[in-house]
Fold:
Amino acid sequence: MIASIVINFHHPCRLHPDRDKFFWADKNKEQFKRFSRDYYLPALNLLTRLIENNQSFRLGACFTGIFLEQAELYCPEVINAARNLLDSGLEDRRVEVLGTTFHYSPAGAFPDPRKTEFKDQVVLHQEQTKRTFGVRPRSFLNTGLLIDREIARILGDMGYSAALCDLHGDFPAACGPEMVFRVPGKDTAVIVRDEGLSGMITGATSVDDFCSALSGSAKSGERPIAFSAELMGLENARRLEFWERLPSALEKAAIEALTPEGIVSRLDLPGCPEASLPESVLAQMGLNSVQHDILHDIVDLETDARRAGGDLLSKWRVLTSADNIFYLEERKGPKAFYRFANPYGEPSASSAYILTRKIDDLENAMKRFEILKRSERTAVLMISPETGKLPDEMGPLARYISGKSGGQGEVVSALCEGLTNRGIEVHLATLNLKKRFQRESRMNEDQWREVRYKIYPEQIHLVSSAVFADNFSAYSGDPRFTAAEFQREIVNNIIKSVRAKCRGRLIVHSHDWMAGGAISAYARITGLPLLHTVHNSFTGHVPLDLLYGVDLHNMSYDLYFSEEYGRKCIDCQATAIKDASLINFVGEKFLREVVDDYFLDRHLIPPSVRQEVKVKYYANAALAIINAPSPGMYPENCPYLVQRYGPDDEVLEAKRVNRIEFQKRTGLNVDPDAIVFYWPSRLDPSQKGVELLEDIALKFVIEHGDVQIAIIADGVGGDRTHEDIMGRIAVASGGKICRQPFSEDLSMLGFAAASDVFGASLYEPCGQIDQVGNIFGATATNRDTGGYHDKIRELMLKANGAPQDVGNGFLFRDYDSGGLWYAMHNSVLFHRMPPEIREAQAKRIMRESRERYDLQTMIARYISIYERLNGGKPLG
Structure:
């Protein structure tokens, strides 16, 4: 039989009863220090001892963000005690940290169909947990153990494997007597708390009576228990004895104490019944009319709070705490919610008066902010020919726009989302690849017109033209004509309108050569701060006559001219670098290779680009920020896998399951134990080294009988030469090599199937395949150049005599097939090692890659650059 004990640590932040103050700082400090002395520290220290002294005992711990904030401020020893608890259970993951809302807020009950505030508070809590404990929660305990269909779906999309909930209304009676359910369409379990047992563990019951009741009440074998740290009652000698004896009593009664994640790992989740969840959680809160009206008033401020951002948004989020609502009535709501004493005294009318006054004060402050600050806030205009998925907060058009192509699109969409989440106004100018957007949205021409003509674009500015409307990527067709149309519209219309809307306070961030040329020159002559990110060394030469209607005469000093096919042109990349206030490369090593005159024997770095980069570099105006993959690409979140997994799961087993499916879909011989080398890069002879692969692929799989090679990639620019070559090699291999055209679902499944993600790049500004491969638990093999030099470290193991386990892959130096063979052979030697060694290294590599390529860190670095361009002032 299984039980799961989860301790929830929360402490409210009290509002000051006086009109001129918002937080009751003295009372908050006094109360938190008292609770720490009486409840939190005794509970944490006791639980640490129980974990250290009882190898079979496991538990979950949940710390709200507002609890951790106050602990850091008023009683840091609580943080140390919490870390000690986690460290005591580090081995075998016997202590699990759960996710929750940052402010103990019922944000999941807010009427916003996008659940924006709920998602934001979950992410804020993830970030706080990562900073404090270095972990990312996999199980979730919502405020008051509330759940409904949309909350469950969101948690599944965010990668949570379990959601704890309470009995509310008809749920789960409509599903039957089981206590564990499956979220429809998601790999997420819903675990229902046993309210009776939770009451027993916090009451005066003896440990023997509790274990007897637990044994007698078992239905499906899992009996989750959740309760608050304050209710452990350790100031009572009898309760202290209860806890001291609990682990051994559970073991004696053959009751296994597991974490919520441990319960999920034991489940046959597809075999669990689907949860018949309620449509809304609001009714589950049991609010009276006064509570309901005040909550409504708080929710009504959300739009203005988000627009204001900063301190005003933080204060509004404090108002959303459930504590404030339940101070309004003596019974303080359902049992799952906390029961802190009303700090404002009785009757509860005093609480209503104080809370209502704080709502009014905050609303007035937001109105003053709009009046006083509207002209002082600085916005960011992102200019990129391609983008990934955009945040809903950028307007209803966002869901229909995605022309992603590689790391550039991911960076653009991540920055749009990160800036939006921080309350910074961001606009995006991009190409209207109408045919692609229609296809990906499954719309016909009439439906697309409905979108374009009836949805106000708000912060998304599409450049439309028949020149590229039918193109499926930004660089297909003749990119010179596309660039001319793009630059003309942005210079003549978009920058002007966005700048006027933002009262002149605007920073331009251009991406790649197509967003350079006339755009960067116009920014320069009009005094706009410009950050230009160099995603690759390519440039485009746009003939001047294609830019008719643009006042090039006034820009002539700031343009870098070139000549191509006898026509005078603008060198767009060189112009962008020349005119930018700052430039940013997506990898440190590639920046140095350009500056230090690498590749002079090849036509890789245009002399104009190299020259302008050197000028910026020696003027201390060149930076490097490595791209970070979106968490949506993590294997625990990826919708294309047969079995999702994370670094805390059985990685090799999950990869075996995905490998079998991948082999079936690609025509490889089905062999779950095969060492699969995965090539997800385009078949590009000028950069990616496909000719090196062609030279050795067949010989390599013949000599290494346990190896397979999978290529999911297309040729470049419609050139099928290398597709045909690799296709013939695959046929000759007899099922040991495959070449399939790119599709996102098959490509992502390939990362989950791969033992090693490899390439043979001649040069690489950043590259992303090694990052994604590592995140999916594969090693990375590539040439020691550019971004791969920055990110791949040679794998060295204690098992082979190294002082410690380090590294994530294998590098080769010389650009020839012998070098590629050498690195792949070293990878094979590792993947033939015992599974327990490979399992440990896969988990380590997955964890380290998440820390090294953290998306929030990348966004924070870009924001620091924007603030530098903004005269050192915050944007919001």
